[in-house]
Automatic annotation (TrEMBL):
The lineage of its organism: Bacteria, Pseudomonadati, Pseudomonadota, Alphaproteobacteria, Sphingomonadales. Keywords: Cytoplasm. It is found in: Cytoplasm. It comes from the Bacteria. Residues 51-87 form the RecX second three-helical domain. This is Regulatory protein RecX. Belongs to the RecX family. Its main location: cytoplasm.
Length: 163
């Protein structure tokens, strides 16, 4: 089951061990010794069938392109069972792309320069809250929300110009 799972899905040691525990609970175990899903997941990692750091980089890149911030990505990686060492290796990449990611989120949600009209103060607070829930820093969220809508938002705002 473990080999079939790693063949079909990009996964981590933690996710693989959780999957195996669930399957053992559902189907039962009739072996002489107790099943050890954690040891099997570690063995799969030694064989390089499972690579937590590569998974973390792939997942962080994907979530960043969707516009999610560092805190939200960090939380997802922790949930996926990525250890602190691999998460910290990815965090430098997240810091470099923080502004680009926040702008991608703002574009997708039509916030700031991509809004159809100037937002009133109550709507601006909601937009800041949406950016913060997506994992972005509050000060960055406020800077993006304060930008007035323009006729050419894609040409008017860049990550370098905002930083």
């Amino acid at each position: 089951m473990a080999l079939r799972y790693v063949e079909r899905y990009a996964t981590t040691r933690g996710r693989l061990a959780t999957y195996l525990r669930r399957k053992i609970r559902e189907r039962g175990w009739e072996g002489e010794t107790a099943a050890d899903p954690v040891a099997l997941a570690e063995w799969m990692a030694e064989l390089r069938y499972v690579d937590d750091r590569a998974f973390a980089e792939m997942r962080a890149g994907s979530m960043g392109r969707r516009g999610l911030g560092a805190r939200r990505i960090e939380q997802a990686l922790r949930f996926d069972g990525i250890d602190e060492q691999d998460r910290s290796a990815v965090s430098s990449m997240l810091e470099e792309e923080a502004t680009t990611s926040a702008l991608a989120f703002a574009r997708r949600k039509r916030i700031g320069p991509w809004a159809r009209a100037v937002a009133d103060p109550a709507l601006r607070q909601k937009q800041v809250a949406a950016l913060v829930r997506a994992g972005h820093a509050p000060d960055l969220a406020r800077r993006i929300v304060r930008i007035e809508p323009s006729d050419d938002p894609d040409g008017a705002i860049t990550a370098a110009g905002l930083a």
